[in-house]
Amino acid sequence: MAKGRKNGCPVSVADWLIYIMDKSQLEETWVRIYGLTSMTRTVSGETEDSSADTDIWSEPYITKRSGTIELEGVKKVIEATGEVDRGQELLDDYAEQAGCGADATIKIIDPYGHGIIMDTIVTSAEESADSAEQTRSWSLEQVGEAEVIPYVQMTGVHLLRDGEPAETVEMKAGGSQELISIRFEPENASNRRFRVNNSKRAAVRISDITENGFVLTPVGMGSAEVTVTTVNNGCRAQLSVRVMQAGA
């Protein structure tokens, strides 16, 4: 059993990291899909040459798998920018395409950092709404066998402000927010999940937590220690936040 997980507690989609490749950039960029509430993946044991039908065929030799992925979620808007989540936007864009234009590359990482990359076709995107929220759903067809990503251990974590290492931040009560970025060592560490602890919520609020960082909002005068601890290897980084009186 993984450290910190209670016996019998289910693993929810919130514990998984699901990315889609943004091929519109000069360099292929992975974009995480936020706002997901469920994921269902089915895998077929059939191969292109129907080898799975033979009596001697066994699991290690299946090389051309296919399957489907069903994603559901709620419409996610980034608080700091007011923009719709880029990952959901990319899924919608692919669903509107036909043929090769709908060919999306997906990366799925489980709660323990083990991941796969697969080629898919986004076959549909649907949206519904009730009195509470907008619900989104996407259907994807897997093409070929998924590629297993080699596992890379986490060795360190650092907090950055404006791209520079940060150990202290001074803010004004009721003033502007601060974006704190996170840098991992190595950059390609497999399990990039982390926990954020705030020692004084009456002084500062933490929001918009992503694998790239989080937002600090000054609430009231006081000092707080913000601690980031990685799930893999327990690497830690601390930030001292001092919120002063406005106009001081």
Sheet with most strands: strand arrangement: 2-1-5-6-7-4-3
Structural class: mainly beta
Shape descriptor reads globular
Number of strands: 16
Number of domains: 2
Question: Approximately what portion of the residues adopt beta-strand conformation?
Answer: over 45%
Helix content: under 10%
Using the coordinates shown, work out and report the CATH topology of the largest domain.
Answer: Factor Xa Inhibitor
CATH architecture of the largest domain: Irregular
How is the main sheet built? 7 strands, antiparallel
Summed over residues and divided by their number, the pLDDT gives a mean of 83
Compact description:
This protein has one helix at residues 86-95; strands at 17-22, 29-32, 36-44, 66-74, 103-109, 115-129, 134-149, 156-161, 164-165, 168-172, 178-185, 194-198, 204-210, 213-218, 222-230, 236-244. The protein is mainly beta. The strands form three sheets. The chain has a seven-stranded antiparallel sheet, with helices on one face. Strands 9-8-11-14-13 form a five-stranded antiparallel sheet, with no helix packed on it. A four-stranded mixed sheet has the order 10-16-15-12, with no helix packed on it.
